[in-house]
């Protein structure tokens, strides 16, 4: 299954700065390559404002990362949810959260369904 993200790149300060060229909302996957060279997703995450800074905070947790910029925090949230449901990464114990105060809904499940 494909992530739809760019990479993989090494999860190092220099490689993050080179690959992630601007400050933007975005989504990322952390992981490693299996013996066949296929990227194995171990964790997914996002930043609503600066995916580069969020990736810098992850240095040392995995060997590689993939990422993609998004034009809005909501679009990034929806992609993170899709990756979570597609890969069920071992590093994510709970469903991705939404921006505090938002009414965003997961495109795949009803976790945030309002109670009536």
User: What is the average per-residue confidence, as pLDDT, rounded to a whole number?
Assistant: 95
Helicity range: 25-40%
- Runs in which pLDDT lies below 50 for 5 or more consecutive residues are none
Radius of gyration: 14 Å
What gap, in angstroms, lies between the N and C termini?
Answer: 37 Å
Largest sheet geometry: 4 strands, antiparallel
Give the count of helical stretches.
Answer: 3
DSSP strand content: 25-35%
Q: Which structural traits does this protein have?
A:
alpha+beta; 3 helices; 116 residues
Layout of strands and helices, then pairs:
Elements: E1 6-10, H1 13-19, E2 25-33, E3 39-47, H2 51-57, E4 64-70, H3 73-87
What can you see in these coordinates?
By secondary structure, the chain is α+β, with helices and mostly antiparallel strands. 25% of the residues lie in helices and 26% in strands. The protein has helices at 13-19, 51-57, 73-87, and strands at residues 6-10, 25-33, 39-47, 64-70. A 4-stranded antiparallel β-sheet has the order 1-4-2-3. The model has no long low-confidence stretch (mean pLDDT 95).
């Amino acid at each position: 299954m494909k992530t739809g993200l760019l990479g993989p790149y090494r999860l190092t300060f220099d490689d993050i700065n080179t690959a992630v060229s601007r400050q933007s909302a975005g989504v990322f996957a952390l992981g490693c390559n299996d013996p066949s060279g296929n990227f194995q997703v171990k964790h997914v995450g996002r930043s609503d404002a600066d995916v580069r800074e969020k990736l810098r905070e992850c240095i040392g947790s995995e060997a590689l990362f993939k990422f993609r910029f998004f034009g809005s925090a909501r679009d990034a949230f929806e992609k993170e949810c899709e990756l979570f449901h597609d890969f069920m990464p071992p590093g994510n114990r709970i469903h991705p959260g939404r921006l505090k105060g938002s009414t965003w809904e997961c495109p795949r499940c009803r976790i945030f369904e309002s109670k009536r």
